[in-house]
Amino acid sequence: MDNDFSYHFIEPDKEIADFVENLGTFQNLSDEAKEVVIIPDGRIDLFFSQSDSEPFHITLLGLETYPEQRYIHPHTLAFVVSFKPLAVEYILQTSIADLLNIGKELSPDFWNFKANDIKDFDACCLKAIQKIKDLLPPKVDERKRKLFELVYASKGEMSVLELSEKTGWSSRQINRYFTKQLGLSLKAYSTILRFRASLEHIAQGRLFPELNYTDQNHFIKEVKKFSGVAPKELSQNKNDRFVLLSVLKGK
């Protein structure tokens, strides 16, 4: 692990677990930029960050569908809330269809966060959690709640038809909802979740398909599509470039 680059993530309490996957912080203490590779993971990230070269700013990142190399500026401190898709409609209250593979800057006073807030991780978590609880809707469409519960539980392996039957929501309605809110189809999103589930196996050195892949070649092809490298190289994770994999290894 790079001693100049550190991170810490926690899971949310049950009350907001349908909307939030985790909250975390990371910092690059080095005088050099930190190279990382962002890979699709099915989450929508809200970043509060600052560095020596950038003032405090807030960024909302949409879903990723391919790997992208990025650099974390020297002396960067960031706090991040990683949302599940249900939060797009009910917590963020905006579509992110136009944010596929990109992000947008939000107002610097979004959620009334300030630069000093992110210096204390525990206090920052409490503030973010309380804000999310304040935004919780009085009622959630149970079809949507059930849909995402099944998609996550099956690790993206349940077909659109089966999901439709179990939620009482037509396949057309489901795909229309996904396209409108997230910018991609349910099938495309499920494929990302299957890849992410495979990451947990790769993090443990298990470099063969354990989910519903046709064969080893199909597995390798999909890992390359979403990470840019073969499973063996991904597992080695040179210089901790794949932060998500490092987090999974640390579990």
UniProtKB/TrEMBL annotation:
<dbReference type="GO" id="GO:0043565">
    <property type="term" value="F:sequence-specific DNA binding"/>
</dbReference>
<dbReference type="InterPro" id="IPR046532">
    <property type="entry name" value="DUF6597"/>
</dbReference>
<dbReference type="GO" id="GO:0003700">
    <property type="term" value="F:DNA-binding transcription factor activity"/>
</dbReference>
<dbReference type="Pfam" id="PF20240">
    <property type="entry name" value="DUF6597"/>
</dbReference>
<dbReference type="InterPro" id="IPR018060">
    <property type="entry name" value="HTH_AraC"/>
</dbReference>
<protein>
    <submittedName>
        <fullName>Transcriptional regulator</fullName>
    </submittedName>
</protein>
<feature type="domain" description="HTH araC/xylS-type">
    <location>
        <begin position="142"/>
        <end position="237"/>
    </location>
</feature>
